[in-house]
Amino acid sequence: MKIKLKTLSPVHIGSGEEISPVEYLIDKDKFIRLNMEGLFKDKDFKKYQERFIERASYSRYIGDFIPPEVLKSYPLYTIQISSEAERYLQEHKTVVKSIIKSAGRAFIPGSSLKGSILSGVMYGILKDKKNINLRDYSSLLDRVIGEISERPQHNRFSRWFDVTDSDFKRPEEALQLSLAKLVGARTGKEMPILYETIKEDIEFSSEIKTGLNSVDRWGKLSEEEILKIADNFYRKIYRKEEQFYKIPISQEKYLLRLGQGSSAYSTSLLILAEKLGIKYTIQRPPFHRVFGPPRTRKLISDKKPLGWVEISYD
Hints:
By secondary structure, the chain is an alpha+beta fold. It is 30% helix and 25% strand. Helix 5 packs across helix 6 (137-148) and helix 5 (110-126) crosses helix 8 (223-241).
């Protein structure tokens, strides 16, 4: 089944890379990721190399010691900066968390989609079960995959759902630089974080398959059934969090949450525990002093959540 994904709020799926201030230039409301390899290979830049080596160790932002007109000749890509991110970046010149890309283009990985959908399927399959141990996640995962795959002998490694990577888009077309603030409910303190994000209202295409209609029938549920199960789960999460924000949600399309900003409701068994009436706490590192449901929130411009998308198909 071919599907379309549309971002309802900014989305960040991280590459694990941080872009340092010596790798970008701020040009008014534009964020220019520099082509450092091209810059250092250019003969005309050689006269600045000694200055770069000397100053980069203590002056973090390259625009403070290399003429911007020189740097503008070496863009890797250029994206828009939100107004809030621009003010913060101009003042702080700090690292930016890079979004995942392939050959320099933004996309939504099939693995991220599949993982997000699996969280919804876990809830949908287990919500009516009795006497289950929520602490034994591996056994629960084996049980769920065993019920939705025609090859349960492999359990969690069974083929139950295939998802392709989305199509690719140029950074200039799909991305912006956003300022997120992680707000702690207990202290009220904010932790600002700069992300490359996919903008709102950007559409990607992908393909999902369950094998229900294939010759070897490796899945037990149809694509529509799996999307409905996941949609039910994520609408419950949205209702938990809508006190903090409002986004336009269609009743005709399937709701999903991806990447950064997905709260513990999306990534744990909290909602399942509430449904079953089971006492359950999130496994947090020992230094955490917070127990129970998630109390922090990560918002863009103090009002937009991260990670919400909708799925549709023809």
